[in-house]
Amino acid sequence: MNGRIRVPVLVVGGGINGAGIARDLALRGVHCALVERREFGSGTSWASSGMIHGGLRYLQKDPEVTLHSCVDSGAIQRIAPHLIFRIPFVMPVFPEDPIGPELVEVGLEMYDQYQPFKNGRSHTRLSRAEALRLEPALSSRIECAFTLDEWGVDAARLTAANALDAAERGAVVLTHTELIEWLREPGGGRIVGGRMRDRIRDEVFEIEADVCINAGGPWVPKLAALAGVEVRLRPGKGIHLVFERRVSNLAVYARGVDGRDMFTFPHEQNSMAGTTDDDFYGDLDRLEATEDEVAYVLQAMERSIPSIRGHRVIHTIQGVRPTLWGFGKNEDELSRDYIVLDHAKDGAPGLFTIAGGKLAAYRLMAEDAADRLCAALGVREPSRSATTPLPGGDGTLDVLATARRFRTPLAAVVRLGFRHGTRAAKVLADHDNESGGAAVAAPRVVCACEPVLDAELRHGVASEGVRRLTDCALRVRLGIGACQGSACVGNAAAVLADTLDWSASRCVEEVRAFVDERWRAVAPALGGAHLAAMEIHRHTFLGGRGFTS
Amino acid sequence: MKAVVVGGGLAGSCAALELASRGADVTLVSAAPGATALSWGTLDVAAASPLRRGGLPLHDAASGRPLAPIGRMHAVAAANPAHPYAMLLRARGPEEEVKEAVAALDAWLAPSGVRVQGSLEQTRWLADVHGALRAADLAFSGAGEGDLDSADEIALVDVPGLPGFEVRSALRTLAAEMAAVGLTSRALSIVRLALPDSLRDVAAQPARFARGLDTDAVRDALRGAVGALGAEGRLLLFPPVLGLEPAAGTRAWIEATAGCRAAELVGAPSLSLAGFRLDRALEAAQRRGRVARIAGRVQRIDVEGARVRAVQLTVSQGAGPPGQHAGREAPGPPSEQAAAATLACNALVLATGRFVGGGIVERGGQLVEPLLGLPLHDLAGRRVDGLAARQLVRSDYEGEQPLFGTGVRTDMRLRPLGSDGLPHFANCFAAGDLLGSFDPARDRTGFGVALLSGRRAGIEASSC
């Protein structure tokens, strides 16, 4: 990227907030540049529970947050139906619980009123026998149980879809690009853009903009400080455990030793359990789950699902919430609300910040921030992001017909359709055109856990701006299943090398970066049957028995 | 003299075959295919990896001369005095020890059509499925015939539809790497195996495709296509799917049909069937060598004072009674109907592997050696049985990982040591990955420890 880029708006941070803002602006015809230091959603968005739920938990103290989340959840379901899946929850009540079933039901009745916004069903009350029949993994010690309805989403994919849509509507979208410094008008005046560095090409360039917004999530204070502005957050670290497979049919509420609500929930091909919430003061760029956090989550889950320790934890996911500052409160009591700040009063006119919030209300927050930016630009276009489908969200993919037409395994087409919606057929058709038709070379499964096709990886490079192998873990869930890449990463790197014209040594570096990243997510929870998988992993990547050099 | 070997991988097989060759009445108990079946083509007693941090060098640092594999074995032992090589190479003249073991393995496998190729004096260049060069020493038939330096022209064979082999990327990598080490005069190309319609979908499943290649029906269908691949002076490098049954001689059939040399690329996980063939060849060698093989799982080991007396096991369903040659059984716990059996023994060899084989397991958050509760030590020599695995890992993937060097310690005769530092039993021996103080992945000592310690354990046990 040489020379200068001139756009009305510069968005720094490619998490769900930044990507959502870029898309909201693009739909209003406002061009922007969206820059992300790593891969879309690789920070907090990826580390979320991957749910667009209302947040029953916030109902008592933050009913606004619950309302916003539920309303916006409904909107997200309309614009990205392919990325959404229903997660029914079961909430067990134990004899020793301080709040008995009657009081729990009062809370759920309140929550029922929000369910229509997000197409959720009302709660039901189950007897002990009914609950155990419905979810055999539940502890037999329960007194009774309740069900409620929530929705899951592939958060990384949702982020990428927003960024992709923005790009297709004219935004300049750059990953692996970091802000080095803000540009100021001479004399220390307005913020008028930023000096950027492409971290892969190691090139520096400038983006000039009329207004800029800091959407750095937990990195917000750091980015603000570059403009001499203080934004205070109270960052809270949260981890999830990811199991090799589904641990339960339904999501199950659990309670930590300190009384915190957590849950184990089926998510995509796995189950996840979490999350923790602890004040975080460490290095945001090198997050690792700790042994304590892992033990705390397992202990909580064990009460609701006694067999939980018999399941194999394949990796952890860790992130930091950009929670708004509050003094004298426990982590859990901090508001999940968000703010949009105009830093004109802080001596940095032209710079805005968005901070806080929930994944479930990302679109609403993005709309709000875009409204503020448009006001600053004098643009009067209304937001269209609640009604315009995201890429692939404009219909339903005929999975069977697509699989047959492109001679592709059905399981792979199902997952392809999940990520790409109606565009899945185009991914396969492009492969066909390039390889001389499916009769010559049908798409091949590269990663069997997910599964991921070579055609999808090539599409990622050609049409979605995939630049690194590590991008693929988030973008298409490559190499994050039971084998943690032993079976697929070498081949995936070869496919990317072919399309991105990587040298042999670049290819090795890409694999190494991928493996390092996976290991940091595996090591904190390593144990049990996963030891054998990681022994094979080591032979594969370090090369003991003639496994790759 | 009755001996029981627990574990059917390379180490256990070598121990059993050595015992049988010395006249012992040997029974080998194998629960399931283990790490040997997951290997892919090379034996590698001390493979150089000059580009990797902590990898073994190609050249001697002092003299600058090329380092022979045997020299690298010594370097490994010198760098880590607790490494099994240090003990195994000290026992006798090291050269003879290694050469004898290699010769013995070659002789055991040869009747099944699997040879040990390469030498301990010279490093050879092989290519892997990603086109990366491997400085290999010993390799099994398949990959072993793929010496890049020995051909005028090298052709990578593209099998359309086969997953796990990106031929264009492999060619580019191979060209760059060969240039880097000065193998510049060889012509490189890609040739495509023209699959008939009937085989196109089969290629998506490497194991099915490989099994087909062992049959006359598929060979007849492919005769023309394979014939078209050949050229004078050409070395054909196939993805590692040339047959499932070593004795079927698929690679030899391809050479005869194409009229030129053919070898396999060194494999990658999920694609290579070389380990599967090795496993089959070891099983066949046991049949020939009068080793009784039982598919089953050891439940308990009976001891009397300082001696192991008998092994209690459950025999997998469908397997024959003890003393008969049982077929390969699916992994998993024995079913309720599984028959119990007791094998009395004068000597016991544990070749149960590490985590893949089940020689070390984590139960209730504690690492244990499940058969005898032997003390375990990590790479740094710390006592670790009873600790959780995650306490033994570090965040630097490529660095030393105490967990992956965990195993039992033994005396010079390979008898596991108890808590008091003395041999636990007079007639119990350990071999292979169950031995601690080495990390075969990081050391790149391949099957070296399995081969040397397996054979030595067999020799030691035979004198019980």
Features:
heterodimer; A: 549 residues; alpha+beta; FAD/NAD(P)-binding domain; D-Amino Acid Oxidase, Chain A, domain 2; 3 domains; nine-stranded mixed beta sheet; eight-stranded mixed beta sheet; 35% helix; globular; disordered C terminus; B: 464 residues; alpha/beta; 2 domains; seven-stranded mixed beta sheet; four-stranded parallel beta sheet; 19% strand
Explain what you see.
- The complex is a heterodimer of chains A (549) and B (464).
- Chain A has 549 residues and is α+β, with helices and mostly antiparallel strands.
- Chain A has 3 domains: 4-44 and 156-233 and 336-377, FAD/NAD(P)-binding domain (3-Layer(bba) Sandwich); 85-151 and 235-330, D-Amino Acid Oxidase, subunit A, domain 2 (D-Amino Acid Oxidase, Chain A, domain 2, 2-Layer Sandwich), CATH 3.30.9; 399-542.
- In chain A, the strands form 3 sheets. In chain A, strands 3, 4, 5, 10, 11, 12, 13, 14 and 15 form a 9-stranded mixed beta sheet that branches.
- Chain A has helices at 16-27, 44-47, 63-79, 101-112, 128-134, 155-168, 220-225, 291-304, 362-377, 399-405, 410-420, 424-435, 454-464, 469-475, 489-500, 504-522, 530-542, and strands at 4-12, 32-35, 84-93, 124-127, 144-153, 172-174, 177-184, 191-198, 203-214, 236-243, 251-255, 261-267, 270-274, 278-279, 313-321, 338-342, 351-356, 445-447, 452-453.
- In chain A, strand 11 and strand 12 form a beta hairpin.
- In chain A, helix 10 (399-405) packs across helix 11 (410-420) and helix 15 (489-500) crosses helix 16 (504-522).
- With 464 residues, chain B is α/β, with parallel strands linked by helices.
- Chain B folds into 2 domains: 2-40 and 276-462, FAD/NAD(P)-binding domain; 144-264.
- Chain B contains 12 helices and 17 strands.
- In chain B, the strands form 5 sheets. Chain B has a 7-stranded mixed beta sheet with strand order 13-12-11-2-1-14-17.
- In chain B, strand 15 and strand 16 (366-368) form a beta hairpin.
- The longest helix of chain B has 16 residues, at 94-109.
- Mean pLDDT of chain B is 91; it is low at 319-332.
- At the A-B interface, helix 15, helix 16 and helix 17 of A face strand 5, helix 5 and helix 11 of B.
